[in-house]
Amino acid sequence: MSTPIVSAVSALMMQGAENFTSMNSTEKKYYLIHTGDLINDTQRLFSRINAYNALTENITNDLTEGNLSVSNATIINYTTLTAPTINAVTLNSTYGTNLSSENLTASFTISSGNAAFNTTDWHINGTSIAVLNMPFNKQVTSTTANAVPDYTTYVRNGTLGSSTLTPAWTSSGYIGGGYDFDEDVGAEDRITFTDFTPSSTTPWTFTSWVYLRDTADDAFYAGDTGYYNALRFNKLSGYMGIRQDNGSSYYTTIQSNVIRNKWAMVTWVANGAGVLSLYINGTIQDAILSNTGITFNCLGHCYGSSGNSFYGILDEVMLFNRSLSSEQIAYLYQESLNKRMMQIHYEETEKGENWSVAITSNNGTADGNTVLSDGLIIIDNAPTVSLTSPSNYSKQNSSVGFTATITDDAETTKVELYTNDTGSWASRETRYPGESIYNRTGLQALYHFNNESEFAESVSRIYDFSGRGNNLTCGTCGTVGHVGVIDEAWYKAYTDAISYNSTANFNLGAVTVTFWMKDSEKVNPCIFDIIVAGTGGGYFCFNYTSTDRPILSLSSTNYRYFNSAGQDAIDGLWHFIVVRTPGNAQNDIANATLRIDGVDIPVYSTVNTSAPPSFDGILIGSADGSGSYDYEGYLDEFAVFNRYLSDAEVDAIYNARNTEKYSMQAVFQNRTLAEGDYLWNVKATDKYSQVGWAASNNTFWVGNKAPVVSSVV
């Protein structure tokens, strides 16, 4: 057996043996140690915790492991354990500098008593970040009002349902205690507490460990006692989702079967903008559009017929009035595996917040004292800027490109190029973390859709940042200025007309097209048309002609359908799309790929009876410009390459919005400059509006003259 985790003074009941009383002290210590191994087994088949009691024999924590092999035994004599007393709680950041880029970690020491578990309640400015925190480690069987403790500053203590509606406290929760809910008719178990009622525009997170047993019921397990308003697990092969007061239900694509008859941490996150995400065991499984307004005041069977009973065990229930980050949800899961919840990920912290943590220790059925740590105030440094090119006191050709490196403790939000190239010192260009950069090999067109006035963008002109001049023009391009994945986005209504620059030369053979999209669920959304000599030719569409499959067509006799899984991108959420073909020879379509959010979509069928024509352009937002198969929705960061980018290359573009938050290379447009002396610098701004510059301006000159030196030291 492995090294023990549970201390000897925890009350441990081992089933089915008769020889425990005949053991000597060393044997009992050894057996008690290894029962801890069994308790930490995921199945927990051989033992359970009843930490309110312990052996009458004086067995202390300083146990030594013997070399005995004994059969199962039963501990039959008990005495009350001393409730644990916490001596001190300490809160530290990763490096002790309290920056917004550092995680927070809590620790504590116990001066007396016997602690098997602890309850951790994190505070910002003196208020709990959770609005409900019920670990169920304290054994409560009474139906007295507010007997089930909530450990937040909101004090939403729970009440067990009366009579036949009382769930049974069990020592076999995932971490210590839990409540076992019965599905028997007339015994619709529940725990009620004070209302928390987020609106559809209020972010929230509900997380718990769930052991869902086999049932024929549609299980409502958290919601409102007054209405059909609940999170639910549908029966058998049904799906997991949310039910609203008006009878509307919104389902994920995840079947309830995936968590049946085993422990799972199930987490729901509402972003306050109509999106509900489902995480299982710390990993996101699905995100759906949903009315996320809901009332929480009940666990278990809260409303409706007995056919809606939850049948299983709930443990470690927490409810937040914020959208926890995916990083924090992963932390909660990993720390649950270690029976502790002692860390906060830096994505949860903001500059100026005063964090503290209250810890209550528990011996398995009874709580000890609660101790609050000292406060820790989150700080942040300004961004650091390093100028890369042109270097200081360098000679340049007339076409000058500017690059700089920015690092920051917080998220960088924008980077501005300042020069005196027009005669006065001014901001000349603004770039944003996560953008596609213009100097990637093979780039033929790049549209940021940021409506940047310095590049004469407007509702009728979209600038090409690739440097190849493939600007888009139209009578009504759509509208700019919408919130995009990277800064702003472009919205194209179904009836908007858009045309490519007829003089453009894309030099397409092999093709990679990358873009972010958020579709408005049009029936036949076609994103782009590959142009043949100024007329419609190939195209990429979702659900083309109601086939419920994406298609990349290079001609009427050369095309490929992808699996219907690709249609999941038509859900009103942002997705990163990559369409690639290695060339336009007859058989190249057989190697064309569709990649969505970093995952390749399987192929459904391919036709390549003849070679497609050569291509020289792109039409965005339509299959042919006729209005029959136009796109309606949002687009951002649309890029066209004349080569087949590798998975690593396109995934780097996909991940840039996260990887470049704290460290990025800013690449600005090349500028054609006359002979003369120039200064330049870069200004970086983070989410706290803190500003950083390079330590000094760089000087360079264009032409053969030496730079002017104002003074010599």
The main sheet comes to: 8 strands, antiparallel
Assigned CATH class of the largest domain: Mainly Beta
CATH topology of the largest domain: Jelly Rolls
Task: Give the second-level CATH assignment, the architecture of the largest domain.
Answer: Sandwich
What is the approximate shape? globular
Instruction: Point out poorly predicted stretches.
Output: 1-20, 33-80
Q: Terminal Cα separation, in Å?
A: 74 Å
| Mean pLDDT reading | 81
Question: What's the number of structural domains?
Answer: 5
Q: Number of helical segments?
A: 3
Work out the radius of gyration.
Answer: 31 Å
* Assembly annotation: single chain
> How many E strands?
55
Q: Which percent bin holds the helix content?
A: under 10%
